[in-house]
Amino acid sequence: MPDSKIKRRGRRRLKSFSYTGTWAHSITLYTHQRQHLFKSRQIVHPVLHILQDTAERFGFRIWAYCFMPDHLHILVQGSAPRSHQPGFMHRFKQMSGYAHKRQHGRKLWQESYYEHILRTEETIAAVARYIFENPVRKGLVETPAEWPFSGFLEGIDPKVI
């Protein structure tokens, strides 16, 4: 189908929600054209460093992350009332995409991302476990601890799940 005929999806964020504060968010970002880019430390580590830096600057904790070949799962939580998730995600995608294109000559991310705001009955540990088990569900490894491109920055260790 020619690009001019592609229907653009509407806004994926909730109109009535501010996305500011200490909410926890499960977020999935896909690589451009679902390319299998996250297969080596040389690709994953620079993106992870930018994620860490951006989270720090925007006041977010990273409870869990998992780089799959064609997408990234992250579980983040605002650490201050001013933590603004869309600003954080925009900056992260911008900086990591720019660095990747400069280094490898190609686009990194698909437009937008999918996010889920955790409800009060959903625990950080349960959502982190789900994220860490993704490579197991896809048949890439037998245990979460075997996957080299997942981890935690705020106290949930995939090796003990």
Automatic annotation (TrEMBL):
Domain of life from the UniProt record: Bacteria
Protein's GO biological process: DNA transposition
Protein known as: Putative transposase
Matches recorded under InterPro entries: RAYT_transposase, Transposase_17, Transposase_17_sf
Annotated ranges, domain Transposase IS200-like: 19-134
SUPFAM superfamilies, per the entry: Transposase IS200-like
Pfam families: Y1_Tnp
PANTHER family on file: REP-ASSOCIATED TYROSINE TRANSPOSASE
Entry's Gene Ontology molecular function annotations: sequence-specific DNA binding; transposase activity
